[in-house]
Every structure is written in structure tokens, then in C-alpha cells.
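Response to reviewer comment R2.3. The reviewers asked that we include at least one raw input/output pair. We reproduce the pair for Nitrogenase iron-molybdenum cofactor biosynthesis protein NifN here without editing.
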Amino acid sequence: MATVTIGKKACTVNPLKMSQPIGGALAFMGIRDSMPLFHGSQGCTSFGLVLFVRHFKEAIPLQTTAMSEVATVLGGYENVEQAIVNISNKQKARLIGICSTGVTETKGDDVDSYIKLVRQQHPELDDVSLVYVSTPDFKDAFQDGWEKTVAKIVKTLVKDPPEDVVRDPKKLVVLPGCHMTPGDLDELRDIIEAFGFEPLFLPDLAASLDGHIPDDFTPTTLGGISLEEIADLGNASHIIAIGEHMRLAAEALKEKIGVPYRLFDRIIGLLPTDALFAHLMAISGRDVPMKFKRQRSQLVDAMLDGHFHTGGKKIAVGLEPDFLFDLSSFLVDMGCQIEVAISTNSVPILERVPSESVLIGDLEDLESMAPGCDLLITHAHGRQASERLHIPLFRMGLPIFDRLGAGHITAVGYRGARDLIFDIANTFIANAHVATPDTWYPHPTGDSENKAFTTTVAH
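Raw output as returned:
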């Protein structure tokens, strides 16, 4: 078990973590015709907007209640009301997802009461769904905002099924963790559909932030799971949750519709993927399709080929807790050593990270502890540390704004794990020291014949 230590620095120098409102807003972006709304200052929203645009390279729907100093002191009801009415009238959003920020949480705005007042004063908004999530950015992190938001969506938007509900044996609900990319969801969808299921992802970023060109402009989200599909989840037969932080939403959905769930705390690598396929075989009664057996064989071969380059390598990793546990476990399976593990906030799963210790800290901590490591793994803000330490950086997580295709990075399934092995091994190969004639030097004894020989060869 890893020892989890919380850093005691007076300030964060190079932040690793993203805030709770960022995680909440991203979860709302996986629902069709929705508009995330930050209840806070314009600066809070601008920061999140820029981060998402640079990462996904897409138009991002995100609005603000634009709280001023005076409004913050007096209370933000009028700002919330005006924002909801404007978004409904001008942008035709069917769901407005409200995330609190530090300034309004410090003031103590009762947004749930605000929403009740808006409902009373604006009956024309009866068809607009309003979901409020408390996501103060002065505590917890990105993963927690996603976790709370998905759970609140389940509690608010999923209808209670009737007592005589008829379960659809093909309907399977997937609650993906915040560390899963649109590419991961697409791969997972292909796997689940191959067993005859019709998976519904909540949220579904693969349908909204996968980088497609829409037929028409829309100011809200481009796609995702619909409100009708969320409301009708009550007749589903199966639930799969991915990541320990999705247990809260899985428990909420289980309580709501009365269906047990299966939670996978790992999804990257051979054994976790085998466990997923075994579960799908058990609930579907079908054998694994031949193409996946072939892909599994390819993954095993990739592990054999890749371990020559990954075995014994020392890795420094800085990621959100569940992603840190999942990816570091995969790296250890490939023979790597997790020398440095940095995460954003203390949660129980960090004790299971295959490292001697996990520090709750920032990227300055990662940089100070990483000398001697062979690879850094974190998001794009680790690039300066990589340059200063002359250690290659393998980009994972959010944000990745200095490379294309961040939304399509795929690590799940046999194919995803296979390609991840190749990418990491190729990073080691590209940065390996290779002897060349220029690295040959005269013999240290000063022997004239040896010196003449080496000098001739070198030139």
C-alpha cells in the first residue's frame, strides 16, 4: 500500500489539478442541447472556456452569471434568473447545468432556492431542465466535480420506473469516469455493441466532443445522450461504472431504478480488459467475437515486444486519483517502476497505487522529485519541467493543448492498451542514447596508435 502524504506548501507553484467546476461543466457537455453555467465571475468562466477550447480544439458552450463585487455581497438571485432566461430564450438550451464557484460558495448563495423562485416566476421555462451542483473550486478537484455532477444528474433527471417496469435486456447504462476520452468511449461502445447490447453513456462526450463537423450551428452542445434517454433509464437491465469515483453515481442509479451495477476501478491493460469481457460474456450469454480474440493476441504480443523497452524504467506520474491508479497499475504490469506519484486530492484509492508513496501536490513537486526518472507522465503543463530536467514527457489527462488529437487518445480495450504500449515504448526508443562515431573519443592512455585510430574513425 502506498503512503499518502499531503503537501504543506504555502502556495501552488505549477498547478496539477483542475477545479471542481471544470469537471462539472465537462460532465454537462456530454448531454445533448445543454448549456453549462458557472455561477460566479466572468474570469472563472473564461479560464474554463479557454482550457476546453485549447484541449478539444472545438467550440465550447459555457456561460456565466457574471457576478460583480456588489452582486456577490447582496446575493446572486437576479444574475441567476437573468442568465437562465437569456440562455433559454436565445440559445434554446433544454438543460442548463449550474455549477457554483468559489466566490458564490463563500457568500453562501442558496441556488436551489433560486431555482424554485425562477420556476415560480417564469412558468414558460417549465420545459427547461435545471440542475444545480455545488462545486466550490477552493476544495477538491476536477474528478470530484465530475463525480458530483453525474450523481446529481441521475437524481434529478432519471424518472422513477413503475413497479411493473419491463426491463429491456439490451439496454446497458455506462457511467464513464472523467479520465475517459471520447476515443475511449467510442472503443468501449464498439466492444459492448458486439455483445448485442445498446449502450447508453452518461455523460456521452464521444457524441459531443469527438471533433465532428455539425450540419448546422448550435450554441449548445453538439450531441450527447438526450434528456429523453436519461429520463427513460429506468427500464435498463445492466449498469457498468468505470472508476472508483463513479460509485456515487452508480449507487444513485441503483437506488433510483433498482438495478445492481458492476464497477471497474481499472480499465487499462490486459487483465482489466479481460475482466470487462468476462462480465459482458456473463450478462449476454455470448462468446467473445473472433475479432476481439485477435486483438487480445495482438496485445499480448505487444506486451512481449514492449517490455524490452519499458522494463525497469522509472516513471514520474502526475494525474487525478483514479487515472493515476489505473495508468500506474498498467505501467507496473509492463515492468515499469513508479518512482514518483503526484495527485490532486486525497481519496482512498490512492493507497492502492503501486508506489511507495503518493504526494498530494503540484507539478513543482513532480519536477523536484523526478530527477533520475526516465519518463514524465502528466498533462501539457508538465512540458516546462520536461525541458528543464531533459526527461521526455508523455502527455496524458487534461489539458493537452500543444498536440492535436487529445480527444481521440484511446487507452481502453485490447487495441487501446496495445497502442498505448507502442506509444510509450517508442518514446523511450526516440530518446534513448545511441552510440555514434561522434561519441568515440581518444584512448585515455594517450597511446599514439589508438589516438590516431580513433581520431581517424571519428572524422
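Residues 290-310 form the longest helix (21 residues). The two ends are 54 Å apart (CA to CA). Further pairs are available on request from the corresponding author.
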